Every structure is written in C-alpha cells, then in structure tokens.
User: What shape does this take?
Amino acid sequence: MTAGDADYTEPFDEGKARQQWNEEAKKLGRFNLAIFGKTGVGKSTLINAIFGEDVAPAGSGRPVTQESHLYLTRAGTLGLYDTRGLEIGSSSEQVLGELRGFIESKRGADPEEHIHIAYYCIRAGDHRIEPAEQDFIRGLHALGLPVFLVVTQVHKRGEVYRGEHLEFAQHLNDLGLPIYLSRPFLTAALPDPQLGYEAHGLPPLLEMTYEAAPEAAKSAFAAAQIVDRSLKHKAAKARIAIASTLAAGVGATPIPFADAALLVPIQTGMMASISQIYRLPMDSALAVSLAATALATNAGRTLVTGTLKLIPGAGTVVGGAVAATVASTFTVAMGQAWVRVCEMMVDGKFGPIERLDNGKIQSVFLGEFKSLFAASLSSLKRDRSN
Assistant: This one.
C-alpha cells in the first residue's frame, strides 16, 4: 500500500482485538507491595486510599503456602502481601523467617512474583517506635527490600504540621534506620473535616515508590495506584517510546507510509496498554481505540502525502531514514493523543464510562493527533531542508 492508495480500513475482529488487549495486560505484569505494622496503625486505610476502595478488606487474600502467615491479595496489577495471626514485635523473627523463605523461593521466578517494595507503617499518635520494630525494619532491609517508613495519621493544616507529630518524625529520622531516602514519609490518607486536618503526603510517597520499583514493575504500579496521574503519564510515555522504536523499524522503507498496515498492531497494542494504565475497562475502550487507529492512519496518510514532495530525499534509498522518522513520529502522535483522550474519559468528559460518547471521543482524538503529527512533519521538513 503506497502513500497514494485509498483510505486504510482494518476489518474489526473483536476476538483478535480482545486477545491483543489481554496480551498487553500480561506485559504490564504486577507490582508487589509488602505492608507491615502493628494492628490499628491504618494500613488498610492507606492501601485503599492509594489503590482504590476495598483493595485491602479485612480477611481478604490467601496464604502464600499452606502453613504461612504471609498472605497475598491480588487486584489487577497489584499484589499486596501482609501478615495474619502474627504481631510485629512478639513474632518478628517468625515473620522475617517466612519472608526470607518466600523471597529465596522466588529468586529464579518471573519478576512479577517478587516482592518489590516494603512499607512499614507507624501511627503518628503513638509517639514511639519500639526496639523490636526497629529490628524488624533492619531485618527487612537485610532481605534486600527497599523499606519505606510511612507515618500515618499525621495531622496537618495548610503548611503547618501538628507539633508533636513533627517532633516524632524528627526522632524517627535521627534513629538512622536503613529506610528509603533515610527519612520517614509523613501521610494522612483521609482528611478529618471535624478537626480541620487535611489528607496529604500520598503523592510524594507514590513518586518515590515509582522511582524505587524495578523497571519491569513501574507500569504495573502506575496502573494500580489512583492518586497521582503524573505517574500514569510517565508510564504511558514509556510505552509510547517502545512503540515508537518498533514503528521506526517497520517504517524504514524509501516511501513513507508504504507499510502503514504493518504499524497498526504496534499502535493498537500501545493504545491497549495505555488504556489499562488509566484503568479503563476493555469493553469501553476497545472499539473506540480501533476506530481511532483507522482515523489516524487515514489522516496521517493525507498529511504525509501533502508534505512528501517537500522533503528532500523522500522516495529514495536515503528516504528510508525519512520514512522511519515519519513512522516513529506518527506513532508518538497517536500515543500522545490517546493519552489525552484517556485522561478525559477518566474525568468524565465523554459521559459515564458505561455510556461513552464515541463520536466525540473520535473527534477529540483526531484533532489532537492532527495537530501533533502536523507539527512533527513540519519539524522534519525543516531539518531535512537545512
């Protein structure tokens, strides 16, 4: 198919599209968080605020082995490990022993079976951390886990922290524990309107969790959390970069868009992955993403045809580099436009997620794509003319 051919249309194969969607879900993998702390410090409240209501209901999950007190709860791209029937302090060595055995058993397993990060939670109002808790944190660090010390229920109004809570945080900081960034993270997962205290501290905690997570688990973490959209944007940007590189390899022919049809699986896979990062259900996003791909391909062909004759070297062997750049920037523009649409879907700009206005989605997507791709082609034309 050449740049002058008729509009590109791809027959809708729902079975094939769903299979690709599921394959992209597997590629996202799973982020596994282990959370510890004494009973009543607010672990479940913290987890539900970060990952969604009722992710960590009481009694959920299953033991990792028949005799284990270490439990795993799975929710989408999140794996949550916690302990049942053991109290940190009185049973610390047993918990650490079970953790050590579990970690060693998973050394040769798929990375999504590993524990990636550990949170240890302390309530600000308790004003103390026991020696046994300090030893437990050191034990977690000795197992090779990045350990985040999370102080919960920290009272704050505006920029002002409650004095004794800030003093407690300074005390924790002075202990020199082997914790991530060598400092505690001060949080309040929920506001207290009656006393005038606000929710705070989750975005910095999540940003650093993202940075500390292995590369293979970053997208899964970004997809699982619901607090920080910038992390979803980072993960989507990384997925776009992968698709762009693949598209450049496919598109490196002397005539730009000669292999447009070969780009479609790369682009629909990219859009499926981005949709899942934003936690959009397949039934809502699948059909509209396929329609958007066809619209962008046709619009892209028109833009390329109009620009082609103005780019020196296009249509020659040298033009293979031009074509690769066109395929790459075309894919980037599609990805960036789809990110914009996904964010608007999450914000309810196209109606309830169960009854999306597909026509409006396609119109917004096409406008965003044309603007982005036209700017990229203009830049390419300037670069090749110099």
Remarks:
- Residues 46 and 189 are 5 Å apart (CA to CA).
- The first strand starts at residue 31 and ends at 37.
